[in-house]
Structure formats: C-alpha cells, structure tokens
Specification:
Two copies of one chain form a homodimer.
Chain A lengths: L2 H4 L19 H15 L5 H7 L5 H26 L5 H15 L7 H11 L4 H6 L5 H16 L2 H6 L7 H15 L9 H24 L3 H29 L18
C-alpha cells in the first residue's frame, strides 16, 4: 500500500449521538450533514491531496482537467433534469440561477466557458476534451449516475443530492491556494472557474439546506436526505478513484482513454 | 507501475483494413466485433489474471464475488428493460430465455440462485451481499449505466450491447480451470453458475450476432453496433478497475464499501 493511501483511513458511516427513533432537531440534522462531509467528501481522497500539494505531473493534471470537464459540463443537464420535475414556479425560479451560473447569460460568461480556460492553459485541445472521447468510463458512469439520480428520485432526495455544496467552499479555497503555489500555469485565467464558484456555491447550498430542513418531516425522510448526500459523495469519490487508478497508481489507462504525452510510446 | 500492469499494454481502437466509406461484409463485420474482444475484453485486465492465476487472497476474492453479484443480479433487470422495448413478439420470445436462465423457472433453478452458491462457499453472508450495502460505488455506477443504456438506445444498439457474450466462453473456461486449480473452495457447488453459462452464452451470442448482421444496413449502423460493444467492454472493465483499485493496488477502500476481515483494524 502506498504512503499516499496510508494517510487516509476510510471511516464507515457517520455515528452521531441521536436516538434512532425521533426526528432530529435542525441543528442535529445540520450536524449530520456536516459529518458526512468530514468522513466522505472527496477532499479526503489521496488524488486531491496530490493535486493540491503539487505532486502531480503535467499529464496527470491534464487527465484530471479533462475528466472533470465532463462533470462540469453535465451539471446544467443535471439541474435542468431536476428543474423539470419541480412542481412550483418559486422552486424552479430558485433553481434557475444555477443554470445561468454554468451556461451563462451569454455562453461566454458562464461557468463552463470559464472552465474551458483551464483546458486551454493546460495545453489540451478544446474539441478533444468536449468530445469526451478520451474520458475514463468510470467518470462517465459516475456522472451519468448523478443525472439519473435526479431524474428518478423523490423531490426531497434530488434536491438533497446537491448538498455536497455545503463542503465545497473549503475545497475550492484549498484548490486555488494549492494550485497557485505549485503550478506555473495556475494563473487567474486558468482558475477563473474556481474563483467565481467561491461566491456562487454558498448561496446555493444555503437554499438547499433550508429546503431539506423544512421538508424532511420524519426521521425516515431525514435519513433519505443523508443517504442522498452520501450518494453524491460516492459520485465525487469514484471519479477520483478512477483518475488515481488510471494515471497514478497502478497507472493502468483503460482502453480508449486519454493517454498523456509522457505515457505514449 | 506494478509488474501486473506492465504485462498489459492497452491498445486504443481497433484498426481493420476496411475502407471507411462502404458497408462491411458479414465476415468483416464479425471480424471487427472479435477484434474489440481481443483489444478491450476484461479477460485482459490484470485483476482477472490475478484471480485466475491464484494470486488473490480470500478477502480479495470475497470482494470480487460480492461486487460481481450486483452485475449478475442486474442482468435480468437489463433484459426485461430491453424486452419491454422490443416491438415484435418473435423478438421478445427469442429474448425470454435469458430471463428464464437467470431468474429460473423456479427461483432455485435460476442462474442467480446458482451464483449465490459461490457466495455461500466463500463464507459471505447472503443477506449482506444481496443488500448491496458493501458494494463499490464504481460497480453500481457501471452496472446501472448498462441498464440505462438498454433503456435509452435504439433497438439495434441495445441488442448489440449484449454481444460481449461472443467473448465469454473463453473467459468462463479459463475461470473454471484457474479457480479449480488454485483455490480449495472452488468445487462444483461454488462454480455451478459458470459451468452452466458455458452452455447458455453461445446460443445467446449467436442470436444477437445474426440479428445485428441482418439489421445493420448501413456502415453508420455497423459502427453504432461496434460502439455499443465497446461501451459494454467499458462496463466490464470499469468494474475490475474499481476492484483492483480498492482491494489490490493501491488498496484504498472507498467509504462505506466492504472491508475484508484481514483489512479490519
């Protein structure tokens, strides 16, 4: 087992001191959500530690950015799938800003456009990246699972699945600091997406948290909310598993996936 | 990079000498299908080589059997999703035997029931395995992607996605021989599922191949068939990536997934 891995000991299921048979108070419920972040959020993954710690080479960072593109570009599809199932105009309106944030009022002012600046800066071809031809199958399956989740689950759970945003500001701050410190390419142009998200994610997360606290009337529904957040941490974690496996250790790139220049022979 | 990995060099896209602008003959089309198997089938994956070569410890084999269960148990859901979209009774009838093979005429005579004999023999708890609580998220996402594929794609492609069965007899034979040779638990009771499949898979594969050869009238449709087979090889490959990553190298078990006894502390 590598030293990168030895640092992290996976914990299994959160364990709070709330009896199993009663509704959690709003504070207990919020704590339970935060606890999931502390135990399962992908900021704990060794691949993230390597990325933010300057331990990845250029080809590995390209692989990360290329694969993460598919997640990024699928978020508005996810949000529109979700919005199409919301039953009241006020809920749909509240969700609308997410689509505007990512797709833009004009395309070039949206988050996906800002994300593509990172692709440029890393010397990747935009057309190749947006074709998703070199995507890891593990990335595609995880991201598509997220879109399918919001297409199929009850409204409470589909809204809850976005609540990993509660944990996002920390990782975005770490990412901006870590990348800026360790990599020459990491300037304002390359990191524009992440810098902008710092201002967007908290309002989205707050809205979602208020909603699930208000709507989860029974302990069973509260647990369904927590399971939806766990599902989402799995979606994020599995993407880093696939990257770490293919490009770091053992470094076996699946047939058809992106091969960095230094791995070509 | 480990020695297990150094043995396999991933190839990227098959390359046959057929001009791009004409229909392939049935023989060329069949060759193109077989070529995908030679380049992308999961029999090439280092985890399979370790499994069949007797190099896995008991906990690693338990993890394989537990995760493979979800694939196994999802196949009838996949086949019924597909059958529900077939437009003629003769096609639905032709497909029916697959469901009978797996679910049984009576449950206890079906493939899933035989598969659970392997679970018993490996000392795993049936209820824990069938709950899928300890499943790797990567397994769930890959298998669900297969079910979703047949729910969404045109009839030709959804049928084509089963054609990895063309490559299955070899791996089933290798598996039975390899497991019997190397592991004490691998008796007739444990391997009943795989032994039975040796007789079932070829007839299914032949039906599917004849169908796609008959129905793919244009080169574009032939390429869509090949892409559907590639998609399916990705589904199988990604499951072994997730197993290898979590339980062999680097050996990082995702939060919530099955922990073998020898990894508990």
């Amino acid at each position: 087992m590598s030293s990168a891995v030895a640092q992290i000991k996976p914990t299994h299921w959160y364990d709070l001191d709330v009896p199993e048979d009663r509704l959690m108070t709003p504070d207990e419920f919020s704590d339970a959500m935060q606890q999931i972040g502390r135990e399962r959020y992908h900021s704990l993954h060794p691949f993230h530690k390597m990325l933010h710690g300057g331990e990845l080479n250029h080809g590995q960072i390209q692989a990360w950015a290329l694969n993460r593109y598919y997640y990024q570009a699928s978020i508005p599809r996810k949000d529109l799938t979700l919005m199409a199932r919301l039953r009241t105009p006020d809920m749909r309106l509240a969700w609308r800003s997410r689509v505007l944030d990512h797709d833009g009022v004009e395309v070039e002012t949206g988050g996906i456009s800002r994300y593509l600046q990172l692709i440029d800066r890393l010397g990747l071809d935009r057309d190749y990246v947006t074709s998703t031809e070199g995507l890891l199958p593990g990335t595609r399956f995880a991201v598509d699972a997220y879109v399918n989740f919001v297409a199929e689950r009850p409204e409470l759970e589909m809204v809850a699945s976005s609540l990993t945003e509660l944990f996002a500001p920390t990782i975005h701050k770490e990412r901006i600091a870590g990348l800026s410190e360790h990599y020459d390419w990491a300037d304002d142009y390359a990191l524009a997406y992440f810098k902008k998200r710092l201002g967007e994610a908290p309002k989205d997360a707050e809205f979602g948290r208020d909603y699930v606290i208000r709507e989860a009337h029974t302990r069973e529904k509260q647990e369904a909310v927590l399971n939806a957040i766990r599902f989402k941490t799995d979606v994020l974690w599995a993407q880093l598993d696939a990257l770490h496996y293919a490009y770091v250790e053992p470094g076996l790139i699946p047939p058809g996936a992106f091969v960095p220049d230094d791995r070509k022979d």
